[in-house]
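Sync notes, pocket subgroup
Present: LS, DG
LS reminded everyone that the earlier model was apo-only. Rerun requested with 4'-deoxy-4'-aminopyridoxal-5'-phosphate included. Inputs:
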Amino acid sequence: MSRVAYVNGRYIRHAEAGVSINDRGFLFADGIYEVIEVFGGRLIDEEGHLQRLARSARELRLDLPVAEAALRRILRELVARNRVSDGHVYLQVTRGAAKRDHFFPKAGTPATLVAFAHRGDRAAAEARAQSGITVISLPDIRWKRPDIKSTSLLPNVLAKQQARDAGAYEAWLVDAQGFVTEGSSSNAWIVDDAGALVTHPADSAILSGITRARLFQVAAARGLNIVERPFALAEAFKASEAFISGATTIVLPVVAIDDHKIGSGAPGPVASGLRAAFHDFAPATP
Ligand code: PMP
């Protein structure tokens, strides 16, 4: 079965799908995106992801080319056509194709909408959660609006590759004051001395994760306190647990940061418990 992608109103074989070389997504990374988990054939936290997409669009003065109901249908069609049971749907909107010029294209230029679905490997994800991941720290050199889910991800890409080159899975980004903002493609959490969950406030310095928001609910139901405050890298080194969250990773325990063992050096009960309970709380829409 060949994979099927969606491009501007058409379902096309994934391998043949493409956009113009004038597309502003290609030329300027002038676009936004979302990644939504598919679990048991259902979309997880779709509402939150679509609301964040709308916010990103507003912040960048980008007009979405289809209404939300149509977008929901497209995502479902991709899940069905690609027979995705567990995996993800990806969607991206750019400011369309126009002669290369920094100014916005003239009014009426249609935005580009691309979406595709891919299958995940549940067994591999579980194995990663069992072993835990390692993290390196790097300076956060991103622009000052990472709260917008824009496709301008060059610093994130460089950080992620640097992590891989160092044998780690993720890079935690550290601001000029020494505080961890978030991961290159995930939110960052620790468990502090008092047993509370600590994560950076959802201000303009981080992407306000949809998984992060859902975990607040999961944590509350488990009787855990949550404190939104910046935490220093030095505090993370001494934390009893650390973990990352995101739609592609849900919760992954962090067992070492920069060669500092976290807690016992194995996944802890808080992170593992949140991971196990996540899908009991996150809305799944068919
Ligand atoms: N921060 C960054 C930089 C990310 O790329 C992601 C994943 N898209 C997240 C946080 C987690 O967000 P979400 O839970 O909505 O996937």
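DG: Residues 125-285 form a domain with the D-amino Acid Aminotransferase; Chain A, domain 2 fold (CATH 3.20.10.10).
LS: Helices lie at 24-28, 46-59, 68-81, 122-131, 154-165, 210-221, 233-237, 269-281.
Action: DG to write up.
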